[in-house]
Specification:
Rossmann fold, 3 domains, eight-stranded mixed beta sheet, four-stranded antiparallel beta sheet, about 450 residues, single chain, GMP Synthetase, Chain A, domain 3, 12 helices
Length: about 450
Amino acid sequence: MEQFLIKSPYWLKVILINAYGFLLATRRFSGSFNRWFTQYTNNLKKSPGDIKSEQFDLLKNNLIYCYEKIPYYKRTFDEAGFNPRKMTSFNDITILPFLTKDVVRKEFDNLYNKDIPAQRYSLQTTSGSTGEKLNFFLPKELSYKKNAAFMYRFYGMWGVKPKDRRVTIGGRIFTQKPPYWVYNRFEDQLLLSAHHLKIQTVASYIEKINSFGPIFIQGHPSAILLMAKHILAQDSKVTPFLKVIFTTGETLLEEDQITIEKAFKCPVAQQYGSREDCFSAQRAPNENGYLVNYEHGFIELIGDGDVKEVVVTSLQNDVMPFVRYKMNDYVRAIDNTHSKQFNLPILFDEVIGRVDDTIFLKNGDAVLPVSVRMTIKPFLKEGTNYQLIQWSNTNFKLSLLDPEKKIDTNALNTVLRNLLGNDIEISVGYTESLISKGGKIRNIIREKD
């Protein structure tokens, strides 16, 4: 379907994307969305004490459910001597073993409730940023309506309402030639292709954003940073309607945030969550840390010192709940506190996550990390990963974590040349480990100054 969309004439592309936009808008905003959005928004009026008490009840009830409905947890709870009905504090959970990605793969058939009708959930896959891909189930109610309600509760902290006019700079590939954008009228959304954002096209992107006049922008920090640098270098004007920029998918460095805010003349707010949909947290106005959505998941911070590992227990996934799941993420912890405006708990002030580099080619083009990831992603199989290292403008090394040689290296070499240029040199090799930072594998590294 993606290949068909890419090759379609523009008029058909607009029809297909809007048809999909209508489907997504229906899934997100119809039915129970208003109920969840109202409930989550009203929760911000609760006291920190009431929020803590409510999260404990959510956690305890979830663990009772896991014990009664999920075979893996019935076995491991018994082995640990843990009775969820007798929980009296959050610390009681520490007697349970950690859930790792290897355990999820090994125990997959014992980790979900088989009594739930299959039409209520869908199979999802992580991108493999910490090593190997992972399959799991998510309830559709969580994937669409609840997630949209959490997201717009967060956006509301910055004065944004559901379906306010927005620009999305996304990783989905939907075109090979200009125009590099499509308007989705069902969410008043301008979709921009991050893959075609280059030195030669950046001015047209900024012009399109200004003519569209969004209330907010959402997208990958590296793409927004490229536009910000151009705006500052050219002293370009920016739409006056812009209230805020929301970034996700990559780590937002402090110096990059300063550059973006200076260029677009509005604040930047970072979101943090997991593809496994176990929890979510975000930056809010005039706050010093990440506000945790206490209804979404319970977070434990493990380890000594300020930098701690994130361990999460999902509270909204009744199909395949994760309990004490080690995400291989790290954060800089701060003393437990809460938001003065919204009362949500604050546990950390910095996420030490994925830091991939932008690649620069001989002709001056910048190739964003999201473009590389989306190009390679279709070739990855379960248990595989990669690292692309740029040594010079034309010299690259591709290291593959692929014990069973599942990846088609010839086809992968071809698509990388299409992306980076036919005059490049790529050496392909296999490895047993990949360079990481903060637990996250760095998929794209640029060694050239």
